[in-house]
Amino acid sequence: MAKNSLYKLYSAVFIAACAAPAVLTPLLKQDSSAEKRRLSEMPSVISDDGGLNTAFFGEFDTWFSEHFAFRQQLVNADNRLKTALLRTSPDPDVVCGSDGWLYYGDTVDDFLNIRQLSKRSISNIAHDLRLVNDYCSANGMKFIFTCVPNKNSMYPEHMPLNYVPSDAPDNYSMLSGALADSGFYCDMSSVLHSAASSIPLYHKTDTHWNNLGAFVAYNGLMTAAGNDPLPVGFDWSSAHDHRGDLAEMLYPAEAPKEQQVYSAYDFTYSYTSNFHALDDVIIDTACDGRNGSLLMFRDSFGEAILKYMAESYGNAEFSRAVPYKLSGRSDNPPDTVIIEIVERNLPNLQKNAPVMEAPAAVMPDNVTVSAEKLSHCTEAIAGLTHVFGVLPESFFSGQESRILVSCGQNCREAFNICECDLLGLDDASPYGFSLYVPDTEDVRELTITVMNNDGHCVSSVSTER
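User: That's the sequence. What structure does it adopt?
Assistant: Structure tokens below.
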């Protein structure tokens, strides 16, 4: 009798545990912030056109799988068990390293050197950055480009032992070599590695550098700009109060904290834009008593460094907008322009041409005229016409090329960039071109010339699609 009662109690507890998530779902709201994504909304039985929603049951299944009660707690417990027992991450976006270090899954291909850019792509990026530098110099602006190393490039010793990089050169080192003599490149890897610090410069459970790493980077950028950095790096303290983004993804029901370091410097800059958070697309700042102006194109690594840069300039604009907009600033041009991008996003430099008037160029002699008919696309952008397209591979030879576009008597140099989104392409072609010309120019028919570094020049007429 007692045995039967025990079985009944066990069955009741088991059934209640299984039913609790479904029964309590209407009462408990799930927080999507920890998962870094937008959860699906409750579907409607009625479709937008007033009929029955035939996809309702499939949509409801998706909604329920994302919203059932205790979901985050159950996911959290499952992840804790797997990381503790199997020493591996159940989330493909997170890599579990040694000593509690977590790495972003999207950086693994870079770490293993299996997501390499071609030599032509590297030369294209270097060429395009030189065009930006020339534009800035011609308009009285100092240009600096820097690439922030992935965390596992800075701290590879904590990556799992089965992640063994190939002997192939990585994208960071290839681009660093191509820009070594440019005069505008700040090698952030060298800047960070040269810092003598007993405290890691990156967070253990976050994708990004900590405040100290950002301060070291700030010093490197100010040196590259020819300016003296502010004395904000003294009297550091630490607190165990930082919640890493990778830890949030892996353990959504917890609030795991790690060490963050803080400077005792009294920052005085203020926000002059409608500031909401450090991930705002545009952030404007002002600092009384400081001189100069800054335009910094940045990604999420720019959040921790923003306070140092804002404190160093009288006025600063920090932009996450893509493409980078350099035109329309002639009335009040910044003294310094910085482009900062993280290593894993280097391929993105092939996909969007900076918005600026294309520089004048001179057509070469001894051009081979091709009978192949070309076509190009256009779009209007605030006083400029954006001209872009992809050229035949047969026009290219050697490893480096310049693309010249002639419109009537005007000849301009294009960015070696493939506008993937505008052209509907999944991957960037190394044979793309993109440039902005004044909207007064007739771009219905153009002559496009490819100048290769082996001396071979090919030209043909292109008509607007």
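The chain has three domains: 2-69, 104-349, 368-464.
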